[in-house]
UniProtKB/TrEMBL annotation:
Residues 72-224 form the CRAL-TRIO domain. SUPFAM superfamilies: CRAL/TRIO domain, CRAL/TRIO N-terminal domain. SMART domains: SEC14. PANTHER family: PHOSPHATIDYLINOSITOL TRANSFER PROTEIN CSR1, PHOSPHATIDYLINOSITOL TRANSFER PROTEIN CSR1-RELATED. This is CRAL-TRIO domain-containing protein C3H8.02.
Length: 224
């Protein structure tokens, strides 16, 4: 379900907006809308920390070539079986990134390219947000036919880093479906890397009935 977002201090929001307006008037590429400013404030707590984090994200976006990633057809084609932004949304309107874990292998991928593809997916999904309604995402990890050779800790670390640094408060819910019993060992490691807020957004879904609380199961791909 859609959780109530923590309200931000309106005085802090006003101060952050004033600071960002000064910068954006000199360089329009630095602009962030109000929803984005509120997400950074919720994640980074103080005006100074949020301001610094936004500047770091803007610098990273330019250096990483985020705006050009959608033009990299070769990259998108190479990794399109690893994740997909679905046409449909979850029941509260969040865009969905679907990740079939069985298609991953830590021994058969270029970590830099795969991370670029993950950024492409995060961008694509974020652009699909109806921000006035819900400005965060649903990520579904499907562990059907998952084996330990599919467990790519480095890619997960990169995803966690991206979500915390450059897409703060963009994760609304992370659903883990069809998890085999032995995944508990992997989860114990992964959970240690998550802050309490993020760990609280991860839900293990054990039945189709439970899944229906979040999304209509029929929208999940069967061709990946």
């Amino acid at each position: 379900m859609a959780e109530e977002l923590k309200p931000v201090n309106e005085e802090d929001f006003k101060l952050l907006k004033e600071r960002m307006n000064l910068i954006a008037s000199a360089d329009p590429a630095q602009y962030h809308n109000d929803y984005s400013l509120r997400r950074y404030l919720r994640a980074f707590k103080s005006v100074d920390s949020a301001f610094q984090a936004i500047l770091k994200t803007n610098k990273w976006r330019t250096e990483y070539g985020v705006a050009e990633l959608h033009e990299n057809k070769e990259l998108i084609e190479k990794y399109n079986d690893k994740a997909r932004v679905l046409r449909h949304r979850d029941i509260v309107g969040r865009p969905i990134i679907y990740i079939p874990a069985k298609n991953h292998s830590s021994s058969d991928r270029n970590i830099d390219d795969l991370t670029k593809f993950i950024v492409f997916c995060l961008e694509d999904a974020s652009k699909k947000c109806f921000e006035e309604v819900v400005d965060n995402l649903c990520i579904v990890f499907d562990l059907n036919n998952f084996t330990l050779s599919c467990m790519d800790y480095q890619v997960l670390k990169n995803l966690i880093w991206l979500l915390s640094r450059h897409y703060p408060e963009r994760l609304g819910v992370c659903l883990i479906i069809n998890a085999p019993a032995f995944f508990a060992g992997c989860w114990a490691v992964i959970k240690g890397w998550l802050d309490e807020n993020t760990a609280g957004k991860v839900t293990f879904v054990n039945s189709e009935m439970d899944l229906c609380q979040y999304l209509i199961p029929d929208i999940l791909p069967t061709d990946m």
